[in-house]
Amino acid sequence: MTRPWRLIVSLLAVLGAMLGAPSAGAQRVLRWGGDAEGGTPFVEADPANPSRVRGFDVEIAEMLARGLGRTPQFVQVAWASIPQSAERGDFDIGLSGVEERPELAAQHALTLPYYEFREVLAVRVADSARYRRLADLAGHRVATLGSTGAYQILLDAQAKTGLVPISYDDDVHPYGDLVAGRVDAVLLDHIIAERSLRRVGRGKFVIVPEPVATGHYVGVLARANVALRDSMNAILRARAWPTARSSARSARGACGTTRRPRTSGACSLRRRRRGHRRSPRRTPTPCREPRRRTPRSRTCRRCCARRA
């Protein structure tokens, strides 16, 4: 009696394992959250197919899912609720222009920065000459999106300069109120500012060239989901994604100048302008000192010292 029962129990255990185990062709899903209603250009509904999404963060999610061997699945969530939804486990990672902030890092697990943005001021064309910095806006109303680094910058500037921060729930109405004269300036990411300028039309407002600050976009995960966060960081490093810090360093030479493509005609023109005599050799040298090449610079020691 015992042997048949043992055989039955063993068969049931094997059957349960076969039913519970995923098939070889099955692939896990990477659920990522974003706001397609107001998240352009980070994530938005595809006009050709509203059931699909497109945007910069869509490409980031696809890259992470591909590196993890998963299939990306988008989850719609309001932008302001992305960190809380990630912490509840509504999705694995939140991507929709989420800014790297100290208070966010203290409560959640954040990925490496994958993009650098600039906080820029937008003012009306008539005010472009007198409103160049936050200090010039003392006593004036400056709009921005709530729960962002820009809003914290305005709060800090309020105590120093006396400007009046105005918080909005979206990034569309601030620029509309700027054009209508209800606010005197808008402080937001340069990506949002440039998109709003194309939407409103040039001539309605201008973007101040000098940035107020810089920031970084990151992915946000639940605080306990550190293992998945570390795997995503490894993917970002392996793919050599142009993060803010690495791209800024790779685009600059040893003397701090942006590298340009080297052409013999351009080099000869620079030598003539600097007073160098044309060398009879086929490979001219721009300076008397031997050229010392470095991995990040194509200029000689004299030029670097002169520029420094």
From TrEMBL:
Basic residues bias: start-end ranges: 269-281
Domain Solute-binding protein family 3/N-terminal residues, every copy: 29-245
InterPro entries in alphabetical order: Solute-binding_3/MltF_N
Superkingdom in the source lineage: Bacteria
Region of interest: Disordered: 247-294
Keywords in alphabetical order: Plasmid, Signal
Signal sequence, renumbered to the chain: 1-26
Listed PANTHER family: AMINO-ACID-BINDING PROTEIN YXEM-RELATED (PTHR35936:SF19), MEMBRANE-BOUND LYTIC MUREIN TRANSGLYCOSYLASE F (PTHR35936)
Stated name of the protein: ABC-type transporter, periplasmic subunit family 3
Organism: Gemmatirosa kalamazoonensis
